[in-house]
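Most newcomers find our protein records easier to grasp once they have seen one. Read left to right, the backbone structure tokens trace the chain's path through space. Nothing more is needed to start thinking about how sequence determines fold. An example says more than a description, so a record of this kind follows:
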Amino acid sequence: VDLGLVYDIRLGPASQPGVVVEMTLTTPHCPRAEEIMANARRAVEAQPGAGPVDVRLVWDPPWTPYRMAEPLKTTLGLPAEEPAPLPSSASGLVARLRSLFERIVPG
């Protein structure tokens, strides 16, 4: 299943040979984060000539369901196009609501 978590795979510089993988998770609180990253590392290490593998967790750009493979998006019934981002005034409201929610529901 391709969730679109891998953002970039590149060879390291000559001074540090190997492979660099930049990937994200669907949420910073993912309970399977270590397992997912270890699986990514093992998959790359299994390739002939890969050498050392550096898996880097990144959060920018944020993951959305629209990063998933097309067949998966179709199966889940997502629209073909990602909805436009909220206007900045709405984003401010979302941030205030998120802050309020975090105070009400700790952790």
Remarks:
- The chain has a mean pLDDT of 86.
